[in-house]
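Re: the multi-chain job from yesterday

Posting the exact lines I submitted so nobody has to dig through the queue logs.
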Amino acid sequence: MHIELKRGSSTKLYMQIALTIADRIRSGLIEPGTRLPSVRKMTADLGVSLVTVTKAYAELEAIQLVRCSQGKGCYVRGTEPSDQMSREAAAHSKMSTSDSGVSLNWQMTLVDYLPRAQLWRHFDASPQVRYELHMSAIQPELLPTRDIINSAYHLSSDHAERMAAYGSFQGDWELRQTFATHFASRGLQVTPERMLITSGAQQGIDLVARTFIGPGDVVYMEAPTYTGAIDVFTSRGAKIITVPMDNEGMRIDLLTRLCDTYPPKLIYTIPTYHNPTGVTMSTQRRAQLLNIAQSYHCLILEDDPFADLYFREPPPASIKSMDSAGHVVYIKSFSKVLSPGCRVACAIADGSVLTRLVAAKSTADLGSPLLTQKALQAYIQEQYDTYVHQLREELYSRLCVASEVLEQYATNEMQWRLPEGGLNLWLELQGNMDMHELHRQSLAAGVSFLPGSACYVAESDTTSLRICFTVTSSEALKQGLRILCTVIERVSSQQAGATADRLPLI
Amino acid sequence: MHIELKRGSSTKLYMQIALTIADRIRSGLIEPGTRLPSVRKMTADLGVSLVTVTKAYAELEAIQLVRCSQGKGCYVRGTEPSDQMSREAAAHSKMSTSDSGVSLNWQMTLVDYLPRAQLWRHFDASPQVRYELHMSAIQPELLPTRDIINSAYHLSSDHAERMAAYGSFQGDWELRQTFATHFASRGLQVTPERMLITSGAQQGIDLVARTFIGPGDVVYMEAPTYTGAIDVFTSRGAKIITVPMDNEGMRIDLLTRLCDTYPPKLIYTIPTYHNPTGVTMSTQRRAQLLNIAQSYHCLILEDDPFADLYFREPPPASIKSMDSAGHVVYIKSFSKVLSPGCRVACAIADGSVLTRLVAAKSTADLGSPLLTQKALQAYIQEQYDTYVHQLREELYSRLCVASEVLEQYATNEMQWRLPEGGLNLWLELQGNMDMHELHRQSLAAGVSFLPGSACYVAESDTTSLRICFTVTSSEALKQGLRILCTVIERVSSQQAGATADRLPLI
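And the result, structure tokens for all chains:
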């Protein structure tokens, strides 16, 4: 197991070890039932003291991820049958012998560089889930899939030979021209030369990270933030510093102070209808953020999947539209709004930052498929604006449904704030809700949500959760939310009861 | 500029610095005309002595990549107007100011982690090239693009809603079932659970590297080998050790001895119709290679794009088909043989090696696009075997054309060996051919080839080159090869003349 130890860090070595192993267990990368390396072996592998490893294992035992016993060693604990992880564990254990029955246990010694993969863990819902509210997406019936397929067909069969070739690493020229027109109508003047087509925003984030972020580089993110981005920056060994948010987005005052001590290499932000909270960063803060980037000669990674999905008024101008000195890499995904199955996003960057991203793209996959690029090009040119206008109204009606259900059924513990756009609703629960138990009971009752902890770097004990109000039908949304409210009430009262039980009986 | 220095390595520090900078200059990542950081700054940044940096810069000057002058510093040299790099340089210099005319020079201080991107440099040919023999691909007219587009259309419009969703990270289940049947008919028994769909073989190699290879990990490769794989392992900071080849492929006797000193973490091989040499590894060596992997508990990455493209007899069984203990990650690309534009390949792995690759795929891009997967699925199911049967005959006829031209026009310097399958022909030139000059004159005469140096890790002064005999029409292949022979003769005689000139005139 590779653990990147940062000596001289404010996090003690034993905690670094414990946190890394915890991330791997929670991500399902170490299976339940697995025996951790002995304290002695770990000591030798990492070049730390016996005490450090012993404390790390004790920490893991304290947070109930492993069970240690004298002489037998420490084993990763199992999970409830209803849990996603245990389904993975079942799949793993099938895999621990090969088809021919030979043991694959030697693979446990194979060091890897995957410290965390939370996105993977939280992507699929359990089979018993009838109301999938955990995934941030648009109900497939609302997406123009048939039209996109038709466009792809006509455009590509007219130019079959061209489709056969490798495309440009940077992405199809005509698609980039189409995007230029698209962005111009939204206040962002950009030429096709400044764009790179990526396989979804996820790949865009990953390319920026693999190009510019290495061990110890300082990356700032909002807390909470997008799970998949945390996975990416963690995998590069970044020193991630999170900045709390308020109603205007990232707390720039706090960021400024933090930067004094830890100068940034990159600031990752989702300024518009932020995932998961739905908050939009004010124009003033956007300008301040850009100022900071200019002062520190650092990059801003502006992740913008939702800008077109406003309910009343268009959002503030993008940070990229104010950027004259090439500090912002802007990533606009068309996956969510048009077609998750096409995996097309556009990254906009300047100067050698762009050049270097194109080089990274060539190493990563030689460029995105032409077929899907062509499919979106024709559609965006001709039909996108009409489509997205209707879509906005439909999404807003879903938000109203969610709001009504919550007004009627929410318990006192629940707090929320309706977003001005996007797909997500962030619920904060007051008191000491046992989120693990809530998640378990909710899944058992057929409703999935994204536990807030997946949106924090350190998996803190947050009592928040994200639901998506656009991924199911209105009817399913109503049902699912009502059930969720009931489960929250039940878990809350069980906890209160449990607490009461422990009071002295006098 | 981030330079990963390996203290205690057999390569001296100043050479490590020089090689890294050289790679970046050759890859176009540092533009012609750029001033390198001052010796003093570099000394401080890297924590090495002034002498070390001075020697590194002197080395770069000796190999004519930079020009240093007292008091002014060292500048990256420009290149001929006919050169690919200078077109990039032109694009770069346009980019060194933003659209609004603001300087982007601050970006030069932005450290990145991209040590090499040769693939990117050698991908596109210059505009004056009429005979593109540098790229390993099949002439678009021979590919079944129209049929694939039709399949995609019918299959996807029948299931439009499904196409709208995110697919599985691991790849479409039905495509994996189709692949299982496909591989079974080729002696490789594998279930869909053991597969991961990737965006081309390039992404497969990259996922294996990012998951299992980190700084200093020992990776063995054939010398020469696939440029894109060198880029990937270099970018991970691997300690790459190359093993010479003979007529039976990688010299396992040498590999065995090297492994005694440097135990392998991964062995990368293209055993069948090797790229670039065309050599096929014998069955005995395949078995020996697997034995080594078992002894050292390491991985073999078996890259197999060409197995279906044999000319007379099918190639030996894949190493994966002998692998019972999960040591081999097998990557089969369908890009070359069916559709470079679709970017679909299949990785086969076992146990937690597979699980970890799936996790890496989720972080990299959330899974490949469904549309392109569906497109290939229907085609492979119904038409692939008939298609590939005809294709083999056509490709063989191209090889015969190339062989005839070479027999007739080759100069005494040229040596080659006809491959039993695949797309590539490797030419070795005897004597001290100036390959840079040959490449320049060949491009000027309208013929591109891949300089052999791109296929070596250390960019050694090899006098070999790769041409692809399947990427153009037969007629263009004839013309191009004839011109190439003429250019080789001319450069050779110019050099002989130049040498003669330098002889004492007595």
